[in-house]
Predict the 3D structure of the following.
Amino acid sequence: MKSSTPTIFRRSVLIIALSAAFPAFADDNNNNEQDAQKAKAERVVIKGDKPTTLPTEIPTTIEGINAKAIETTINALDAEDALKYLPSLLVRKRYDGDYNHAVLATRASGTGNSARSMVYADGILLSNLLGNGASFTPRWGLVTPEEIQRVDVLYGPFSAAYAGNSVGAVVDYVTRMPEKFEAHIKLAGFTENFNEVATDKRYSGHQLSASLGNKQGAFSWWVNLNRMDSDSHPLVFTNKLLTAGTVSTAGKPVTGAVAGRNPQGLDWWLIGATAQYHTI
């Protein structure tokens, strides 16, 4: 009689092998699904900032600051304040609200040479090149701190893309438009105690600004309202040389003048404080 034991044994081995293979297929499927989910979860969307309008292919220094740094490191009341910590730059801002004498100065141009530096917003000229002096300042008020995306500065006359007025620096404000609904409101106050040459007084001011913006399809809009009320400290002291004074019996005698010496070492009288501005 022929035994069937080997056949039964072979079938048992085959069944065990097949049953052991199915969990392997299941593990492979689970691993594939996990890898797909992991790849999907690790997908990164990169959105670049708006590029500068300044030429970048020239051998010179370009410095910049973005909106996040302005928000976290600068208490910006206006567009001039965004330049506060950039190297080799100075805005002649004598007090908050000083728009008519806020000249941009660099190492190559002093505060009296407004036409030796250029200021742009998105490539549009803000500088006032009708003259060269303290009263020909850029139109800083056309840019609000909330709409600034970044500020770039090109130092020195190293590009034929700009006129000879760029001997000091070229500043470009890169602005942004909202990607969704935005609303900003800011209330700021400031005060100082001015105590110089027998003038002891406190000067204060405040600023209220509000901004609204939104994007609807391909259309974006931005509105900003800003009101500043600022009292500056006196900027000049009226004086008269002691040698130029004459004794007179006419009029009413007054007191309060402070004796001193001018930068040339000549004796003079400081008669009173003047050039105190009220900006609204």
